[in-house]
Amino acid sequence: MDVKDFFEWVDGVLYHKKWVKKNGAVSQRRKVNMFKPNLNTGYVQVMVRGKRLSVHRVVWEYFNGPIPEGMQVDHKNGIKHDNRLENLRLVTPRQNAQNTKQHRSGRLPGCSFHKGHSKWSSRVTVDGRTRHLGYYDTEQEAYEIYKKHIDGWEKTTP
Question: Total domain count for the chain?
C-alpha cells in the first residue's frame, strides 16, 4: 500500500486525504495529529481500509519509502506521539531497545547498578538469552566490557 494514496503532507502537517464519518459521509482532509494516542501503546494510530497504522511509520514511509524488513522506526526523543520527521530514524530492534527511557537519561546500554554488590553489573542479551558479564567499580568499565562483547558478537554473526 502506498501511503501517498491516503495521506498528504501540507506545510509540515500530515493529513488523511479522505475521512469517512460513522454516518457514511465523507469529509476532505483531516489533520492526523487530531487523532489521540492509543491508550495501550501511546502511539498515534489511524485506520486505513480497516487496518490500523502507526502514524510514525506512515510519516517515515511518506518521505522515505517502505521500511526494510527487520528494521523499525524509532522516536529519537522517546516521545511516542512526536511524529515530526526530524524526530524519526530507522534502526535495528537492538538500537531501538537501547533508546529506552533509561538509556536516554544517561545510562549506558548493558549496565545497571547492583545495590547488593554496590557495583555496576554488565550483561548482554542475544537471541533472547541474557549473559552476565561481571561486576565493575564504574558504569564506564561495565560498558566497555559490554561493548567488547557486542562488537565481537556482531562481527561473527552472518
Answer: 2
